[in-house]
Amino acid sequence: MGGAPGAGAHVKDSTDQDFANDVIEPSKETPVLVDFWAPWCGPCKTLGPLIEKVVGEKAGKVKLVKVNIDENPQIAGQLGVRSIPAVFAFDQGRPVDGFMGALPEGQIREFIDKIMSGTDEGQQIAEAMDGADQAMQTGDIGGAAQIYAAVINAEPENVRAIAGLARCYLQNGDRERARETLEMTPADKRDEPEYKSVRTALDLMADGPDENEFAEAARRIEADPADHAARYELAENYAAAGRHGPAVDQLLTILEADMNWGEGKAKEKLLTVFEAAGPKDPATIEGRRRLSSLMFA
Q1: 24, 127, 251, 262: least surrounded by Cβ within 10 Å?
Q2: Does domain 211-295 have CATH number 3.60.15.10?
Q3: In a 10 Å sphere around its CB, with 0-12 CB exposed, 13-18 middle and 19+ buried, how is residue 171 labelled?
Q4: What is the pLDDT along the chain (297 residues), one digit of tens a residue?
Q5: Identical topology for domains 8-118 and 121-188
């Protein structure tokens, strides 16, 4: 059975007789996933390559053992496997989690990350990432950047850390370094929300704010607070400057007066700014609360 690129050294087939040597003992050092499958199982053919791909990306920090239940029914029976594909995670010699059915790649990745976070190294990285995120929220951009960089050194394909470091550069006004950092994201991980959030922020900032338009829009609003076109231009300039909070305020002011202004243009821009800011940014949290109040009032 062909494995995913980079997965070969960390994926092997096993039997009922070799299960202890291939799974139980190794799991005392590194988490081991066991994929119970059979040649006739269609969903197994979909799930197997995806698990191998994600395991390969982890570079030995998790292993995968595949067991053909047609030839090796004993262990599957002991674990209560009633349908396949069925995946069990072993850590410290015992099963700790599992799932049945063919999951999409994103959910497989979440499952494996969850298992890894239970290990000492995984827990350290998870705690470091939480600390970096907290530093960002409190304005300690330098401290956050150091932590994100350390995580990238340990896990070069950690998208959350890559995106976090890129956002640090954005906060310091260095769009080019932010762009270069974000390019470190592997091509097959560029659909993850952390990457897409910073990518959206960079796209909004592509041309930078136009100071003349900024001043003109502000003047027009002062003369006529109901000039939504001017307010929209002001929001665009705030977003281009990376000032997500003021951009959200201006767009919500438009929506408070006319939820469908510009045939939904203001609402669409607001959602784009939310994505650029990220789900944990106060501008997004408070903005979504205010938007919900408007929509369901």
Answers
A1: 127
A2: no
A3: middle
A4: 444 444 466 899 999 999 999 999 998 888 999 999 999 999 999 999 999 999 988 878 899 999 999 999 999 888 888 889 999 999 888 888 888 888 888 889 888 988 887 665 666 777 788 888 888 888 889 889 999 998 898 888 889 999 999 999 998 889 999 999 999 998 888 888 899 999 999 999 987 777 888 889 999 999 999 999 999 999 999 999 999 999 999 999 999 999 999 999 999 999 999 999 998 889 999 999 999 988 886
A5: no
Domain boundaries, the chain: 8-118, 121-188, 211-295
| CATH number of the 8-118 domain | 3.40.30.10
Catalytic residues: 41, 44
Q: Residue 253: name the closest of 277, 222, 232 by CA.
A: 232
pTM recorded for the entire structure: 0.60
